[in-house]
Structure formats: structure tokens, C-alpha cells
Design a protein that fits this description.
InterPro entries: Creatin/AminoP/Spt16_N, Creatinase/aminopeptidase-like, Creatinase_N, Pept_M24, Pept_M24B, Peptidase_M24_C, X-Pro_aminopeptidase_P. With 599 residues, the chain is an alpha+beta fold. Strands 4-3-2-1-5-6 form a six-stranded mixed beta sheet. It has a six-stranded mixed beta sheet with strand order 12-11-10-8-13-14, with helices on both faces. Strands 21-28-27-24 form a four-stranded antiparallel beta sheet. The protein starts with a helix and ends in a 6-residue tail after the last helix.
Length: 599
């Protein structure tokens, strides 16, 4: 269809044919994934919105798109205000908006493979107040009008060896079986793609930037498992790796299999499993035990092999990013490059390392005003040419078999203003506040979040995203359950106690609309940090990312002695780790970047 307005009109016609008065369009897939395969990009196809989180509602006369603070500017640039109203989360929600805007007695459709049971219950209650009804559809109406919708990937799975996984799949399944026995359950549903990849020590290429394969699984109380995946995706190597303890089924057999579990007690994660799963179990007479996916916490707490692999990946990745930043410093002020040229150059530096499997997300290569969009995704239309007098923000990462990286640096192109230096220094102070934090065991990320914001708050500033997210081991770059964010924020999850072995990002920022953005991001590892004479066991962070932080944007006089020492010590570590990987002008540049800063 030639325009997004045409697509919206076609969907409304389909809704009439389906006898529906509205439809809810989330940005997810059957696995509640954050990043989804091209076949599941229904929200982008319908609206043009290219962010990684959002949803929409279509009614006969109205349509609304829902995004959080990360996308306030971006959604207005990409989605037409003529057809769509902009709704801000968490100030409102799809359920609340429907309660206020759905026609009395309306039938509002939803795809049960794209929503959780909790969402269905909430939306049902909200609509009931208007005498309206939430209706599960058998076929998604967008799929009915999306003529050139891509097919799900048919790529083969691959084996993640114990060398990198650090623990065999059978041992992981037996740990889960022990948990099931204690819970009195017969089996646990694994619906999240990274949970399945981690549990079975397999990887895939079905979702861009996330090395997972499309599958569902049940882990049973005897340590065996049932894996539902398209047979064409499983080669002899994977079959041999899985062994006799894993029974293979076609992916389309998952729903009928669930309906055959009469009287079984099945553990289902209400956050990571879609409503269609619980509906199938209930239809077949199974009993449901609402519990968190048993792989989530073990996956988050990295073992020694995963930590070692991550550090090795970070060391290589740091060299590539350092070469790129030297190139930017040389070429940026000439006015001959743009955002897309820059992101392609960075990819080239990473590819030159060897072993790069994929990027860990779409590179955010954001010049000037585009940097004010925290999750900016460049297009040919938005692509900006470099010029002097503003900032360039680059947030990027790589997927390597031994680790997943994620780093953000901000650099001036030409001479920065006093305001830019002030704001960047405050962001750095917040970053150091997290990096140097020592806290009792049991502390949650939400309790640490303000450490990163205080320097900005003191200037009447803030940033509208979480301070940190968990990171997988050659898996999802955004991994739960841990994170550093305010309680009640749209990026929920900050209430998970931090434990030694968790990897998490440290990324405060500042964004001035229509002018520039700033973010400084390293990954950190939660480690034990004993305090002499302490009453409690304490934890802290070990920095894992080693790339220079641009000193041209730092006012040393604003830094405390402790902050200045941290920066100089960090740069000494960067030089020691990255220096031996560089030569000639690249190494000379790194030595200048890592020279101690003084007041």
C-alpha cells in the first residue's frame, strides 16, 4: 500500500469484515520479545513508528499510538498526527484509553498470541465499564491486509558449546527439575526466546541482533524437555547436542500439546508467556502455577566462563570502538561524513576484528538534534551531515560468541559550548556515582537509580529512561530481571535485588530537544566488595567496558577528588588493555586520550 493512511484504512475495512469495532496492536511477538522478527513488525508496518517499544489502538474514527518518554520526540517525527493521537505511558495506558474512548457496547479485538493474561484481564475490566467486550481473534487482522508480510525465519539453530556456556544443558534442566519437584509442578513453560536459547545451549538468527531461534519449550519434573521448533531448523549437530532427554516437536504442535495436559500442574511465567498459552492449558484441563520462568535468574547470574568470555569480547570490541572514535575526531570536523557513513565505518572496524556474529542492536549514530532522541534509529530521511559546533552520540554493540557488548560515547564535533561541557560533566558524575557505589546485599536497582541523577537534578535536569539494563551472554542486549531504574517507571523491573555475577549497563544521559544528546555507557559486573568492619555483606561494580571518555567535554573543576581519580584510573586501565591492540597513529591517539586529566 502506498501510504500509512492507506494501511490504516485497509485495517479498518478488515475490522468491519471481522465484526470488530477496534483492535489493539502491540510491538511484540508470540514470545513477548522486545526485538522481533520482520514478520512481527506489525506496529511499524501500520504506523511508521520505528522505535523498539510501543503499541497502538485503532477504532472506527480514532487511532492512538502509545510510547514512553524515550520516544516522545521520535514518535512525532515518524507517525502522522493526522491519523494518530500521541499517548504517553505511564501517564495513560491502552486499557485506560479504551475505557475512555471505546464506543459503548464495542467489540475490541486482540491477538491472544501477543498479550499476557494479566493485560487481557485488565483490558477486559476496563472495557466492561463501558459495556464493551474484549474479543480474541483467531487471525490477526493486520496479517490479513499485509500482503507482502515476511515469513518467519527458517535459519538453522547452532550449538553454544559448554566452553562459552559454562554449564551443560542437561545440568540446567536438572536444576529446573529440582525446582519443579519442590513446587509440586509437573512442568514449566519456557516461552521467552532467550530463555530457550540459554536452557538448551543453542543459538539462532531468527531475530535481528538477538541470537535466538523461534521455539517454545516445556521442561519436565524428570529433567527431560519438549522442544517445539520447525524441524527444518534442526540439523544433525543440534540433534546430537540435545540428546535423548529432549523430545522434538514441530512448533505448530505447541498449542495442541498444551491442550493435552489434562490435570497436570504447569508453571507459567505471567510476564513472559502470552495469554494464548494459559488459554490453551485451561481449555485442556491443566492447572496453572503462576511462577517466574525458572531460567531467568540463573541466566542473569553469569558463571565464570560467561564472565571470562564477556571480558574477552569487551577487550576486542573496545579496540574497534577506540579506532572509530579516533577516525571520528579526524573526519567529523571536515563536513564530509554523515550519520550513516559513520555507523557503517564503525561496523567495518568491528568486522575487522573477526568473529562478529551481528550487532547487538541497531547502532544509534546520532548527530546534533538527532542525539536528543534516546533511541534514535537513522533513516535516509533523518540522516544528518556532520558540521562543527555540536555533539555526536554513538550507542552501539556487538554480538560475539563469547559475549554481548553495549557502549555509548559522546564526542564534540568542533568546539563544544560551556553548556555542553557542564551537562556532560554532570552525566559523567552520575556515571561515576553508579560505578563506585557500594551497597548491602539485597539492594535493588531502584535504590541506586538516583545516584546517577543527582548531579543533573542539581541543575534542574533529568533523563527520561532507566539508568541500566541487564545484558545477556551472547544473548539479548536487554535482559532481565535486574535493572537500574525508578520504581514505577515505564521501564519496569528496578525492584530485583542485585546479585554478584549480574551484568548491567551504567548509562545516564541528558537530552536537549532539537539540539543535542549526551550519554556515557559502560557495562559493569556486580561483584562482592567487602568493607572492613561492616555490619553487612556488601556488593559493588566492576567496570567491563574500556574505551576513552572524551576529555574535551569534561570540566575537571566540577569533579571531586574522588571523581577525578576514578576517571584517571579508568583511563589508565583503558590504555593498559586496549593499547597493546593498537599501532601507530591509533595508539598515539589513545595515549593522548588516556593521559591524566588535571584541574
Amino acid at each position: 500500500m502506498s501510504s500509512y493512511a492507506d494501511r490504516l484504512a485497509a485495517l479498518r475495512e478488515q475490522l468491519k469484515a471481522d465484526k470488530l469495532d477496534g483492535f489493539v496492536v502491540p510491538l511484540t511477538d508470540e514470545h513477548m520479545s522486545e526485538y522481533v522478527g520482520s514478520y512481527a513488525q506489525r506496529l511499524e508496518w501500520l504506523t511508521g513508528f520505528k522505535g523498539s517499544a510501543g503499541s497502538a489502538v485503532v477504532l472506527p474514527e480514532e487511532a492512538a499510538i502509545f510510547t514512553d518518554g524515550r520516544y516522545t520526540i521520535q514518535v512525532r517525527q515518524q507517525v502522522s498526527p493526522t491519523e494518530w493521537s500521541y499517548q504517553s505511558v505511564p501517564e495513560t495506558s491502552v486499557a485506560k484509553w479504551l475505557q475512555e474512548n471505546a464506543p459503548n457496547g464495542a467489540r475490541i479485538g486482540y491477538d491472544p498470541w501477543l498479550h499476557t493474561s494479566d493485560w487481557v484481564k485488565q483490558a477486559t475490566r476496563s472495557l466492561a465499564a463501558k459495556g464493551a467486550e474484549l474479543v480474541a481473534v483467531k487471525r490477526n487482522p493486520i496479517d490479513a491486509v499485509w500482503a507482502d508480510q515476511p515469513q518467519p525465519s527458517k535459519a538453522h539453530l547452532s550449538v553454544q558449546s559448554d566452553e562459552f556456556a559454562g554449564k551443560g544443558s542437561a545440568e540446567k534442566r536438572h536444576d529446573m527439575a529440582d525446582w519443579l519437584v519442590k513446587e509440586g509442578a509437573d512442568a514449566a513453560v519456557l516461552a521467552a526466546l532467550d530463555s530457550i536459547a540459554w536452557t538448551f545451549n543453542v543459538r539462532g538468527t531468527d531475530v535481528t541482533h538477538t541470537p535466538v531461534g523461534l521455539a517454545f519449550a516445556l521442561v519436565n519434573a524428570d529433567g527431560t524437555a519438549d522442544l517445539f521448533v520447525a524441524g527444518e531448523k534442526v540439523g544433525d549437530d543440534v540433534r546430537a547436542h540435545l540428546g535423548n532427554g529432549v523430545r522434538l516437536h514441530e512448533r505448530y504442535e505447541f498449542e495442541p500439546y498444551l491442550k493435552g495436559l489434562k490435570d497436570k500442574l504447569i508453571a507459567v511465567d505471567p510476564e513472559r508467556s502470552v495469554a494464548a498459552i494459559t488459554q490453551a492449558l485451561e481449555a485442556g484441563g491443566a492447572r496453572i502455577l503462576s511462577r517466574r520462568d525458572p531460567s531467568v535468574l540463573p541466566k542473569a547470574i553469569k558463571n565464570a566462563a560467561e564472565v571470562a568470555g564477556h571480558k574477552a569480547a569487551q577487550a576486542r570490541d573496545g579496540a574497534a570502538v577506540s579506532r572509530f572514535l579516533k577516525w571520528i575526531e579526524d573526519e567529523g570536523p571536515k563536513g564530509e561524513i554523515d550519520e550513516m557513513i559513520a555507523q557503517d565505518k564503525l561496523l567495518g572496524f568491528r568486522e575487522a576484528l573477526g568473529g562478529l556474529k551481528d550487532l547487538s542492536f541497531d547502532t544509534i549514530s546520532a548527530f546534533g538534534p538527532n542525539g536528543a532522541l534516546p533511541h534514535y534509529k537513522g533513516t535516509a530521511e533523518s540522516n544528518l551531515q556532520f558540521r562543527t559546533g555540536t555533539l555526536y552520540l554513538v550507542d552501539s554493540g556487538g554480538q560475539y560468541q563469547d559475549g554481548t557488548t553495549d557502549i555509548t560515547r559522546t564526542v564534540p564535533i568542533g568546539e563544544p559550548t560551556a553548556e555542553m561541557i557542564d551537562r556532560n560533566t554532570r552525566v559523567l558524575q552520575g556515571h561515576i556515582g553508579i560505578a563506585t557505589a557500594i551497597f548491602p546485599k539485597g539492594t535493588r536497582g531502584s535504590q541506586l537509580d538516583s545516584f546517577a541523577r543527582r548531579p543533573l537534578w542539581e541543575a534542574g535536569c533529568d533523563f527520561a529512561h532507566g539508568t541500566g539494563h541487564g545484558v545477556g551472554a551472547f544473548l539479548a542486549v536487554h535482559e532481565g530481571p535486574q535493572r537500574i531504574s525508578p520504581v514505577g517507571s515505564s521501564q519496569a523491573g528496578g525492584d530485583e535485588p542485585l546479585q554478584a555475577g549480574m551484568i548491567i549497563s551504567n548509562e545516564p544521559g541528558y537530552y536537549k530537544q532539537d539540539e543535542y544528546g549526551i550519554r556515557i555507557e559502560n557495562l559493569v559486573l556486580v561483584v562482592e566488595k567487602p568493607v572492613p568492619g561492616a555490619d553487612k555483606e556488601t556488593l559493588g561494580f566492576e567496570t567491563l567496558t574500556f574505551v576513552p571518555i572524551d576529555k574535551r567535554l569534561i570540566d575537571a573543576k566540577m569533579l571531586s577528588d574522588r571523581e577525578l581519580k576514578w576517571l584517571n584510573d579508568y583511563h589508565a586501565e583503558v590504555l593498559a588493555l586496549i593499547g597493546p591492540q593498537l599501532e601507530g597513529e591509533d595508539k598515539a591517539w589513545l595515549e593522548r586520550q588516556c593521559a591524566p586529566l588535571s584541574r
